[in-house]
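[job 0417] fold request received: Enoyl-CoA hydratase domain-containing protein 3, mitochondrial
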Amino acid sequence: MSAALQANEPPPPVLRGGEGAVAVLTLDRPASRNSLSRAMLAALSNELAAIAADDGVRAVVLAANGPAFSAGHDLKELTAHRADPDGGEAFFRECMAACAAVMQAVAGLPQPVVAAVEGIATAAGCQLVATCDLAVAGDTAKFATPGVDIGLFCSTPAVALSRAVARKPAMEMLLLGEMVPAEEARRIGLVNRVVPAGQAFAAAMDLAQRIASRSAVAVRMGKRAFNRQLGLPLPDAYEAAGAVMVENLLAEDAAEGIGAFIGKRQPVWRHR
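[job 0417] inference complete; emitting structure tokens
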């Protein structure tokens, strides 16, 4: 491809950066309020796959440029496909499947993901926050699943939301579609911490760097085990978690960490 053609290509919708063992993914379509268009979802999918295969990354921060974290699906893009011969059905299915795949990629990523939220996170944007392992919000951030207001119930955002907060707060958000302030989002468990506006990224980076300072093998095993046991009956959950504990105990870092604790020294992680 010529340099001229390359120069005419739009910039990527997701930027990849980082600091040390922390990768940073930044949604970068502020003009569209970082809506989860097909291009945005494809870019996120590609970046998450690359991070999953990168042993040098031990934690991830997910942030956004502009006044909104993400306004959810690109409604203009969806509406344009109503002119398709099938009324948009094939594109709608493709879009929902792509979004579900990205959410599952975040949940299944070996490394913990910390959302840094400023502005609004609505519909599938709220779903993305709920899917992340941890979330920090600026005190002016707001969250909503407002699909009911436009005749489109937020059924897929409900999957992540119902796994992040209790049933009744989740249903209230879904049935009323009202904006939830950052402090209320923290109270119901949608976000972990609220900081002054403009400081969410710095606070999220602090959490990610603290996670990255731990044994990568322990954190990866722990995230996998936590997510797996959530859907199991109690006896099966203990059996699955116990098996991971044994696997973890056999890892080099567990021997090092326990030895360091007994010897009253700082552990030296080998991440294996």
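[job 0417] notes: Residues 1-5 have pLDDT under 50 and may be disordered. Residues 22 and 59 are 5 Å apart (CA to CA).
[job 0417] exit 0
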